[in-house]
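Continuing the batch. This is chain 6 of the set; chains 1 through 5 are on the previous pages. Same settings as before, nothing changed between runs. Recording input and output for traceability.
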Amino acid sequence: MTFGNTLRIKIIRFNIHESYFKGKAEFRESQYTINIQNERRGKVLRLPFELPNKKYLVRLSGPNGVSVEDYLPYKGESEWIELDSTPITFYMADHQDQFDTLEILLN
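Output for chain 6:
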């Protein structure tokens, strides 16, 4: 869904693995795999659709007020939603089941 200049992606679930999170998300009535990991290859935002190559504010949030955000550069299309961000990954380790929304601010 797009609200003004923000893409909102519904988080269905996350599963924790040794050093990353993998789950399912829904955007425009399609489901995608979502993967969040630390910055092994630098900060990265990849999506299953094209955006201009620039940095975006990416925010994960939940109904109980929990949120974490980071600026990530768009690095091209992928079949998955991919976020490589150490701050987001570390925060998720303590709040894994509390997120229901991924927002990408387009301005």
